[in-house]
Design brief:
The protein contains 29 helices and no strands. By secondary structure, the protein is an all-alpha fold. The chain is flat.
Length: 475
């Protein structure tokens, strides 16, 4: 393993499932667990794939590509190394070259064929992608991404019967993988409930299957079963917005404040919201008359009125929703955000604080609560709050940037710099590094700022950073 990749993989204990940690809204811990897995099992290609995908999702794609470029350079005869470089590459031309290199070393390396197929599909070459996916699956039927990619190619060509056959074959080949069951449920609606029940039986703790099953059980009128499925899904994946909404729907159905007909109308109004807001508002007005005790109706009414700029009327609707559901994070957050927009942090703060504590994975809710704290309780309170949000979500830029902005506004430039210095140690995102360089320059540390800009140039290859460093040094 290369030195650069070893440096990437910090010495951490392998103690948790990275995917589960991501579902729990804990991306830093997920990245650390993925790094540790690769360190523990450096020859496990799936562990490497997961690490690469996590780095992409967290904005660390540049670092990932650099690390795997070194890995391939250090292992020039290993097709896995070149395949991983292709997967990590940010540019499709570089990815294609890496996959081709892997296949030149081993013409039967199925994952590299799968990678080439994904590139072809992304470029709209569906027929070529289909051929490559089929070749990959002939060699290795355990490749979930190849089954999914082939299914997508067939759907794009409107070959739905073949796509269903593909999903059923995937279910048989990889019974522990969710994708076949989810695809079959979409492609064969009359059998969707059975497909998902079969999937949950094979994967009893899979949150995506449980959430999809719960949604179908709502439609089938099986509210108790839906509640149980959704509760299990949210226990594993609490940040799933659709599952959270569906769970709220079940609660209203079980309380009798909404019925199946009302739910159908509510869904229609939500779907109309963006494309036909007038028609949606007419539907919601009728729903308010027919379901006066359903907080979801008033919540939707309030949200639509906010979008329409009718903020005073929106407050009335959200107050009613809050009266009906005082513990709902959706109502608390929506009301708090509206009050903050109306420059009323005193009333906004307790609502946003309560909503964020209920949904601590919602970073933007935390940032809004921090800004409301600054307005309601003073800058120091806002700094403390945003610091806690940033600490809890070190891979998110928004709380760090909000904290730095607030510190700068109150003249605490040195503190802002230290926040950025610590943040870049934990999460060296280019945006944070650039902000750190700006903070260093504000403090008169020109050489340090120039050094950071040089680091950015080395990291990204963008010549503008080198030019900025040279200009700083010339001053």
């Amino acid at each position: 393993m290369s030195m650069k990749l070893l440096l990437l993989l910090a010495s951490l204990a392998w103690s948790a499932d990275p995917e589960q940690l991501m579902r729990e809204g804990r991306p830093v811990q997920a990245l650390e667990a993925a790094q540790a897995q690769v360190r523990e099992t450096p020859d496990d290609v799936e562990d490497h794939e997961l690490l690469i995908d996590l780095m992409f999702s967290l904005g660390l794609g540049i670092q990932g590509e650099l690390a795997y470029l070194q890995f391939a350079d250090d292992n020039p005869g290993n097709p896995m190394a070149w395949y991983l470089l292709g997967r990590a590459a940010l540019d499709p031309v570089r990815a294609n070259t890496a996959y081709a290199k892997a296949l030149s070393l081993d013409p039967t390396y199925a994952r590299a064929m799968m990678g080439l197929a994904a590139l072809q599909r992304a470029q709209g070459n569906t027929a070529d992608a289909e051929k490559l996916y089929r070749q990959a699956l002939e060699l290795d039927k355990s490749l979930s991404e190849a089954w999914s990619g082939l299914g997508a190619c067939l759907v794009q060509q409107e070959r739905h019967a073949e796509a269903l056959d593909n999903a059923l074959a995937a279910m048989a080949a990889i019974p522990y993988d969710r994708e076949g069951y989810l695809a079959a449920a979409v492609l064969e609606p009359d059998m969707a409930l059975q497909h998902l029940q079969r999937g949950v039986k094979a994967n009893p703790n899979d949150p995506e299957l449980l959430a999809a099953l719960g949604k179908l059980q709502i439609g089938a009128g099986e509210y108790k079963a839906a509640r149980e499925s959704l509760d299990k899904a949210l226990a594993a994946s609490p940040a799933d917005p659709q599952a959270n909404y569906d769970r709220a729907v079940v609660g209203e159905l079980e309380r009798g404040t909404l019925d199946a007909a009302g739910l159908s109308r509510l869904m229609r109004a939500r779907a109309l919201g963006e494309k036909a807001p007038v028609a949606a508002q007419i539907e919601v007005d009728a729903l308010i008359q027919d379901y006066p005790d359903c907080y979801l109706v008033f919540l939707l009414d309030g949200m639509m009125k906010v979008e329409a700029g009718r903020k005073t009327e929106a407050l009335d609707s959200l107050n009613k929703a809050l009266e009906l559901a005082p513990e709902s994070p959706d109502v608390l957050g929506t009301m708090g955000l509206l009050l903050l927009a109306l420059n009323d942090p005193q009333r906004a703060y307790p609502l946003l604080d309560k909503a964020y504590k209920a949904r601590s994975w919602d970073v933007e809710l935390g940032v809004s609560a921090g800004m409301a704290a600054a307005g309601a309780l003073g800058a120091n309170a806002g700094v403390t709050y945003l610091g806690q949000v940033a600490e809890a979500h070190p891979t998110e830029l928004s709380p760090i940037m909000a904290l730095v902005s607030l510190l700068t506004q109150v003249g605490r430039t040195d503190a802002a710099y230290h926040v950025l210095a610590r943040a870049t140690e934990r999460f060296p995102h280019p945006t944070l590094l650039l902000s750190k360089a700006a903070a260093a320059q504000d403090l008169g540390r020109r050489e340090e700022a120039a050094a950071i800009l040089e680091e950015l140039f080395q990291l990204t290859g963008d010549p503008k950073y080198e030019q900025m460093a040279q200009e700083l040094r010339a001053q």
